[in-house]
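Dissemination and training. As part of the outreach component of the grant, students in the summer workshop were shown how a complex can be specified as a set of sequence lines and then modelled as a single object. The example used during the hands-on session is reproduced here so that future cohorts can follow it. Participants entered these lines:
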Amino acid sequence: MNILKIREMVLEAGRPKIAVPIVSADPKEIIAECESIRQMPCQILEWRADKYLGAIENLEAAMEQKEFYLDIIKILDDINFIAAGMPIIFTVRSKSQGGDVQMGQEHIAEIRSLAAQSGLVDFIDIEFFTAGSTVDEVLLRKQIDEVHKHSCKVILSHHDFLEMPNPSELVGIVKRMANMGADICKVAAMASSKEDSKNLLKATAFLNKNDVGPMIMIAMGEHGKPARVSAGKYGSCITFASGKQESAPGQVDVYTMKKWLDDYYGGEEG
Ligand SMILES: O=C1C[C@@](O)(C(=O)O)C[C@@H](O)[C@@H]1O
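and obtained this result:
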């Protein structure tokens, strides 16, 4: 069960697909950035909508206005048009998970639901833990069902910017995500040593062997760079690389990533 087909793309272990995040805050810049990323050697676009939302003054009050939703739909429509068939991930990353948006999970869920309903994106990223190691199963269930109802796929994600959980913890998190109904389970954790990256790869290989997934497993930070390339071999299906600007520590630019992947896996893509 660790293969996922999205449009014409097959996500599985092996050479990972490259996803590039759109990180601008201003709508015009978002579109220009999207156009420029579309020319880059990548296979997936991620709209980090928290960068846009984080720049809106008094976000919760703005959410009372119809224009707020229309503006998001307009941007999504433009991104979808420019993507021209390239799969799109919609992400609202909260501050506690390293993003730019600080508001109640119910509000964030509402925005995710709008994106799913729009039919303009392929994946919705949903954060697995609400606070610390708490999972709000009721809200999570509601969001997953809502996304699936609109034929969108769910990426359940977890980020740890401080440390690398040990392999059994990593395995435990991914298994819980898969059991909740994630179409893709994603864990990005900080590697402060080679050992940390090895632990992430070890957990990835174990999960892959046990048919858990598909997964996106990322070692963040300088020490994690090699694992962003090799994790595919162990079972991770997507790696993230930067276009305009990195969206997480240790992300390399998309041209470098493509070259590293070509060298590591042989051949070319994209
Ligand atoms: O979750 C991820 C992975 C990421 O954090 C990274 O480490 O490359 C980058 C984010 O944009 C994306 O949403």
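The chain is about 45% helix and 20% strand. Students were then asked to discuss how this feature might be tested experimentally.
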